[in-house]
Queue: 2 jobs
Job 1
Amino acid sequence: MTTHVCLTARALGADAVWVVEKDSALERAVKGVVERFGGPFAVKTGVGWRKAMEAFGGVKVHLTMYGEPLDKALPKIREAAKGGRVMVVVGASKVPGEVYGLADFNVAVASQPHSEVAALAVFLDRLGEGAWARRKFKGGRVAISPSARGKVVVPLGAAEEE
Amino acid sequence: MTTHVCLTARALGADAVWVVEKDSALERAVKGVVERFGGPFAVKTGVGWRKAMEAFGGVKVHLTMYGEPLDKALPKIREAAKGGRVMVVVGASKVPGEVYGLADFNVAVASQPHSEVAALAVFLDRLGEGAWARRKFKGGRVAISPSARGKVVVPLGAAEEE
């Protein structure tokens, strides 16, 4: 599940992901995707959530089904962020209550139980207005060439990498 | 992961989910959420994917990182669906090649490896233009009342259930 969170963050426009639990295998897996499909995208595990939230100089958004509706929160988040950095906090079912207070916004992508991966995906898509679709990853060894019917993976030479 | 797919489908506007692998525990878990938070939402496991895709009278969309870009495919899908039924097919990494042929559209929510849960979430949000936010679930025992700071779960009496 955490791997899905990390790769979703990368694919949908985040620059980095921080994970509370120390997990070297997860780091290797995410770095492997970055080496293969490009970056930049940073992954760090073993991060203290309280310190990280307190030290973050930007807008902190906690995604939770208990939060205020996405449609209502999004304009306020954009105004608060002013184009600057945004930290999105997601967790499994048991998120410490303190997170609700440290966050600038507690936001519900549906007031229904579903998935932190889904919530993160919809939030990033909405926040960036789909800009992930135009993002160019750099330094990877391969890229997927979109196709209506098959699987086309293109090896990248040095020429395409800069 | 499959539970996340099912609950994401429910929360973001689908009417039902069909799962290839027979899984009674998954059925119970999803039905439990429907009893608690409302429906209608149907779950069926042990469904043959080939038969289901062949028999479906509507537009079949297979989400895959190898497919054509979402932004390009979405208007075509809307035109083909004409407001009618849409089947969204997602799988883990190994989807049988035949699925690409049985689908009317193979669509990439990012030509990057990430998560079938994330892809489903963004696709449903985009297809329905966020209409899930206005959906009223019926017959549940509780509902979440959106809150900027805390967790508010409201028990539903008979009066609210109709």
Job 2
Amino acid sequence: MTAKPCIPKGTRDFSVEEMAKRNYIFDTIKSVFGLYGFRQIETPAMETLQTLMGKYGEEGDKLLFKVLNSGDFRSDVSDSDWADCNLNRLAARLCEKGLRYDLTVPFARFVVMHRNELTFPFKRYQIQPVWRADRPQKGRYREFYQCDADVVGSDSLLNEVELIQMIDEVFARLGIRVAIKLNNRKILSGIAEWIGAPEKIVDITVAIDKLDKIGLDKVNDELREKGLTEEAIALLQPIILLQGSNEEKLQVLRRELAVSETGLKGIDELEYILQKLSASALRSTLEIDLTLARGLNYYTGAILEVKALDVQIGSITGGGRYDNLTGVFGLPGVSGVGISFGADRIFDVLNQLDLYPKESRQSTQVLFVNFGENECGVCLSHLSRLRAAGIRAEIYPEAAKMKKQMSYADSIGAEYVALVGENEIAEGKITLKNMATGQQSLLSVDEVIALFV
Amino acid sequence: MTAKPCIPKGTRDFSVEEMAKRNYIFDTIKSVFGLYGFRQIETPAMETLQTLMGKYGEEGDKLLFKVLNSGDFRSDVSDSDWADCNLNRLAARLCEKGLRYDLTVPFARFVVMHRNELTFPFKRYQIQPVWRADRPQKGRYREFYQCDADVVGSDSLLNEVELIQMIDEVFARLGIRVAIKLNNRKILSGIAEWIGAPEKIVDITVAIDKLDKIGLDKVNDELREKGLTEEAIALLQPIILLQGSNEEKLQVLRRELAVSETGLKGIDELEYILQKLSASALRSTLEIDLTLARGLNYYTGAILEVKALDVQIGSITGGGRYDNLTGVFGLPGVSGVGISFGADRIFDVLNQLDLYPKESRQSTQVLFVNFGENECGVCLSHLSRLRAAGIRAEIYPEAAKMKKQMSYADSIGAEYVALVGENEIAEGKITLKNMATGQQSLLSVDEVIALFV
């Protein structure tokens, strides 16, 4: 019973300091979502395995946390199921539920289940933990929060425009300088079509996606391995290495992909989005980036990713348009576009750049020192007045030694310490000590309150 | 693949309307927690089964959701484990993790694991879902949020005083009239001692707890069944039926329990708390209630429960003092006192009394009707200005029929609809329609903003 307690690997406790920082991030994001008419939903942590399985590829199925059936979980398992080596089938007998792996599939399930109560376009956001049985490593956890905003039931590119404005606003508020990288799946499809290898689109984009990591030569090697002709590879070179301003890139693409209807459609979409955004004074850089191929099996139009400019870290936000969110649940034709903020990475970026404002700590503003029974009664009445004025205030609960009380004040990050002894009581005042400067002043309760409002 | 999707029984989706209401409740509670110096932590959804098992009684162990080990979950299970009928042992081989069953045990584990980083007293709050494989029924779910505040590492009764003030403040802010019922475990122990049946304390309090439901006669019958003598039962009568003001009750108790040191200690504690609170102008009723015996195996001092006065529903908040939170994890001597708000029931009470303020809906304040490409560009620039002023605003993403756009406005609860057509553009103005009154006015952007600030 007294073994040293621990938590499952890949999971984390969040201390009061960490939670204050995380709340600052989430509250910032929520405010911006609200300004754009997005509203919050929540779905259960557990979904049926029927909802989850087969949605994340074979690898994803393995990474699902499955929940043992309650009661006699053995009753659905025959001895041959057990003796058999098929772990998947055995797991399916032992478990009918699993933990949420992302927010997208539960959202699709939500839209289908509640389609008769919803009015489209439906703009929702969702901030909840997800669980993946990935091998834990630095920056990769088995439980982490996702923070998604999506519009479903509208094909309008205005949605892309607003989502990008939201991204810009969130990072401006957080004080993080970012580049927003844009691509369009239709352009990638157009490219594959144009070089005569439409069935190779995934291979091509996967290879292009590695450009930063392995360099052009190895990308070309990989394309060769995947069976692209030398001619196709040659045609691809200007595309892979596309340079210049967004206008210049669009111009090259429009020329090279002139034969591809799909490609031109993608170029039009990208141009429309850039044009609408050009009027809205974004603080972020906007950059067409054809190497962007995240979630390619999934996205059908816009693809976007956000990189922090001042910290070396992977993408801190991503998103794109998908055409058939809910088809897998029997409701075809629901298209959507969404973004997902990477809370853990944003947390790291803010830490590294030391960008948390002091108020985000939400620490106690006034700690009353406890001098004993009589003084305490007076403090309680002062406390009521301070709290009624919205000031975060508390009293040390015992008449402990001054040193202990002051060290508590330090540990909670109290801004001021209030001393109410015999003299103060006689004068109806409070001695207030500023913990940063050490300065002390004798003030009335009203004067103390005035310091904070 | 296209089977009608569903969610696991006993779990819920929360719609945007429900989430807005829940956020209103949680935000209210969080603000009050913050004013009293409580700060938030979070712990992982999964804990090791070693942490969870044996903490909630045999019944609780059965109600834990267990998570199947990832990878080859069969490798730790011998064929005889499988053939054997011991489900508990088999589950322990298949699973090493389980879902959080409450917030108290993970908090105890947190305190022990982080004791060297924490300064005591440690005042934390925690708002997270918990999971129990209970049979679902009306008002009882398999996933529900708990909302706990605790102070650990302090024996001072000031903590009880502040927790009760917090409860009072939360319900005052929510507009729910409540009675806060108080008891003390030491008084109950004193009673058992006094009637000469100290080992019967649990039986006695369980029986007393049923007074409301089954009446005095059946309580006495139950005490008889549990082996109490007629003499003991006779002695108990004035206690079970204690009436009058808190002062009168304390007076009777002080007289009856004069022989019990423990009982008198409990009476002193209760009196101290009531006396300190009498100075603080609570809006709630405070009521000594000896039938209150919740969590008796657990609490060692104060026990409290909150009842809504205007709605027939069980306790909506509870709490008490415990002396040995962390002993089971090898850290003895950490006492604490805490409260837990019943978010689901508070949600129901607010619904029944229709007490949600309009602002809590967080719905869109201005919806711009989309008349087409040209008008849309102008709207985007108006939208930027409104949002910069903190107004929740959006534009319908397509130039759909007016009727469709207005029905969307209704569905999202938009306060105003903004019409920007040729005339408005020429004049640099907005026609704003109040959705509640139907009234329309032609306003400049500044005038629109002025409506909301």
